[in-house]
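2024-03-11 09:14:02 DEBUG pipeline.ingest accepted 1 chain
2024-03-11 09:14:02 DEBUG pipeline.ingest length=85
2024-03-11 09:14:03 DEBUG pipeline.predict start
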Amino acid sequence: MHIPTTLNYPDPAILIRSGKNKVLLASGYLYNRRHNARDQNWGWYCTRYHHGCKARIITDDAFFIIAYNGEHDHVAPVDVIAKGQ
């Protein structure tokens, strides 16, 4: 998986619980953690991946974003929830 590296991610990421699992919240989008992440870094994929969204994030072991491809093909779900849609 190739993800362009950047240090200018627009917003900080927050680790939150979703039932038994943890998800990453970044810029209003939710990401699931990849189970086969290597080394000290974690790969995250958009929760809408199975609906075609290819956005990805990589964090270090302290959950700082070290790389991302934030090209989503849908509206941020947190924005939809906040607006009651």
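2024-03-11 09:14:41 DEBUG pipeline.report The radius of gyration is 12 Å.
2024-03-11 09:14:41 DEBUG pipeline.predict end
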